[in-house]
Amino acid sequence: MTLPRQRGLTEQAADAAIDSACRLLRLPSIRNEFSDIADRAMKDQMTYRGFLAELLMTECDDRSRRRSERRIKAAGFPREKSLRAFDFDANPNIDAATIHTLAS
Question: Residue 21, Cβ neighbours under 10 Å: how many?
Answer without folding.
Answer: 13
